Structure formats: structure tokens, C-alpha cells
Amino acid sequence: MSRVALAFVGDVCLAGDVRAQVARFGAAHAFEHVQTIFADRDLVCGNLECCFVDQDFQEPSHNVMLVPAAAAKGLGRSGIGVWSLSNNHVMDAGPDGLAATVRSLEDGGMRHFGAGSDMAQAERDVTIDVRGRRVTFIGACDVPRYFATSTAAGIAPLVASRLLPRVADARKRADIVVCVLHADLEFSEYPTPARVRLSRTLIEQGADLVIAHHPHVCQGIERYRAGLIAYSLGNFVFPLSGNVYQQRYPATAWGTALCIDVEWRGNEKSLAWRNEPVTIGEDNRPAPSRGDARNDQLATLARLSDRLADRTVLRHAWWKRCLEEARATYYVLHHRRGRVGLRSALGEALEIIRDPYERRWIYGLLTGGSVG
């Protein structure tokens, strides 16, 4: 019998209020309290939702996640050895920021996947030898404005026609195929019906694990055929203190480290897993959840997981989330009209309709949650 012990965590952002901490104490400081979770793991994978920059910069706006590359030193001691870069913040400083991020990770001895200097690089998987087994990581994100092209840097697109062949090809070469997705609307308790269908198709195509994030809150986990799908692992290290946008949703203050053991008995492969919930403190650092908080978080994960099999629940939850997005968009356009006029508001509305990322919730709203 042989075994590979993996762990996966959700969104890691060293910007905002975390930036001063890592500048003073080093990047590994942010992960100090979770080393006990990582101790028995052969390899840990996280989502790096920020970018490193070489040059000095003025304090960025609230939705731009920049970190001086010097502050990234020590990230290799975080316990996380491989990073997904396929997300909506790795391009916050453009191609130069992506290049600086890649250099910082490689200088620290860490591996990465999901973004690159062109489409070929962005879609290139990374394979890591773990206890004599080949573990291949594939990344993709569903925010079209950051997609790489044949001539421009960016992220790997979460487009089924591109993603499914990548998984099928990796299956021919790897002992474990991990597909890491950054997808859906933020603060949603449940994945969209479309992402559930795609995730299950990825397992059918050859993925062993489908691991996702971006909603900033935990979603359910399901066994599908011989594989495992985690729809969102929530936040892990994240600038929550004073972050009104995130703090509107209490569930952003905790996440989970998903620990997965892959075992072989002869040619038979099996998966076992457990959740290790973490609570993010006022210093924005995660620590293992204890007592009632841990019990409540595990119960929430169990509830969310149980309901993944109910298509009616998923459709209704998605429709409600689309309705929330429609209300928020209405208020944005209403205030814009008051500030700069009807023509400007109509122009912004047209841009929203043209954006494939935004159109998903529009379709979901119009179809009662069936599409999107």
C-alpha cells in the first residue's frame, strides 16, 4: 500500500491589512497557527489571490490586491508548496505584476499553475512527484476579462471546451489529477447548477479532485463516482479586519483546510478526507477552530454538503443570489444616474449586459435559477 497526503486551502491574500504584517514579520507569520494542520501533509495547495510587484506603489484601491515582492520572502515557509494563480486578482498589476509573482514564488522554491505570459503558459499544468506518485494540477478561472490569449498574459479560462481536454490529457500521464477552479459569485452558499454539472463532468473526464474557491464562504463537498468535489473552501488568510465588504457576511471569517489521503492497494485507488475548519482572527491570521465554533462549522459543512444532491435547492439558491445581484446592480445604476446622468448609467448597463461574467446572473434570474 502507498499513500499521498494532500491538503487544500482557499483564498490567501497578503494585501490590505495583511501587507503591513508580512512586511514587518515575514510572510510565514500569517500561517504560524496552522502548521499543526499541515504537519502530516506531503503537499499543500492554496489560491494566491493577490500579486507581487517589484516597484514601489501608492496605496491601491480597495479592490486591487498588490504586495511588494520583498514581503513575499518567507512565503516558502508557509507550509504551502504549490499555488493556483488562476483568479481575478493575479493580474491586478498587469503582465509585470504576474511576472513578478511568478519570480517570487520560484525564488522561494514554490510551484504554481493557472496563469502565464500567454495562453500556452497559462494552461500549462504542473506535475509534482510526491512519494513516487505524479500529482498534476490544472487551474482555471471564470472571469473573461483576465483570460490569457495567444499573445497576452493572463489566466487560464474556465471554458469547458478548453478545460475538459486538458483534464483528459493529464489523466494519461498522472496518478492524481487535481482540477482547481476559481468560479461563481461571491458570498454564495451553494454552487450554481452549471458549476455542479461541470465539476461532475470533470470527474467523468478523469479528474480525481475538483477543488474550488472564490465565493469567500464555504460550500459543500461531495463524493462523485470515484472522485471528490469541494465547491468552495472559503477564506484562509484574508484582510477581513475593517473590511466592510467582506464582513457583511459572517461566514467569510472562517474557512476549511481540506485534508485528503489518496491510497493505492495494488491498482486500486481510494480517497479519504476530513475538514479542518479555521477561524480568521482580528489579525487576519487563521487558526484551527475550537469548541463550539468548530462544531458549528463542521455542522454547516455537513448541511451544505447534504443539500448538493437536491437540484431544487440549488436552483432556488442560485435564483435568490441572482436576485441579490440584480438589486445591487439597480442601486449602482440608480446612483450613477444621479451623479453623472442617464446616458452614463445606460452605458454602464450595456457594459454589464455585454460582460459574459455578469450575464450568468441575468440568465439565472430570468430562468428561475436553471441557467447560469
Number of strands: 18
CATH superfamily of the largest domain: Metallo-dependent phosphatases
Would you give the CATH topology of the largest domain? Purple Acid Phosphatase, chain A, domain 2
Shape: globular
What fraction of the residues are assigned to beta strands by DSSP? 25-35%
Radius of gyration: 20 Å
Number of domains: 2
Using the coordinates above, name the CATH class of the largest domain: Alpha Beta
Uncertain spans, ≥5 residues at pLDDT below 50?
none
Derived from helix and strand composition plus strand pairing, the structural class reads alpha/beta
Q: What does the main sheet amount to? A: 8 strands, mixed
The pLDDT mean sits at 95
Proper CATH architecture of the largest domain: 4-Layer Sandwich
Order of helices and strands: EHHEEEEHEEHEEEHEHEEEEHEEEHHHH
Tell me the distance between the termini: 43 Å
Share of helix, binned: 25-40%
Features:
372 residues; 2 domains; eight-stranded mixed β-sheet; 35% helix
What's the SSE blueprint?
Blueprint: E1 2-12, H1 17-25, H2 35-38, E2 43-48, E3 51-53, E4 66-68, E5 82-84, H3 94-107, E6 111-113, E7 115-116, H4 119-122, E8 126-130, E9 133-141, E10 154-155, H5 160-173, E11 176-182, H6 193-205, E12 209-213, E13 221-224, E14 227-230, E15 235-237, H7 244-247, E16 254-265, E17 268-280, E18 286-288, H8 291-306, H9 311-340, H10 342-354, H11 356-366
Parallel strand pairs: 1-2, 1-15, 2-5, 3-4, 5-6, 9-11, 11-12, 12-14
Antiparallel strand pairs: 1-16, 7-10, 8-9, 13-14, 16-17, 17-18
Helix pairs in contact: 5-6, 9-10, 9-11
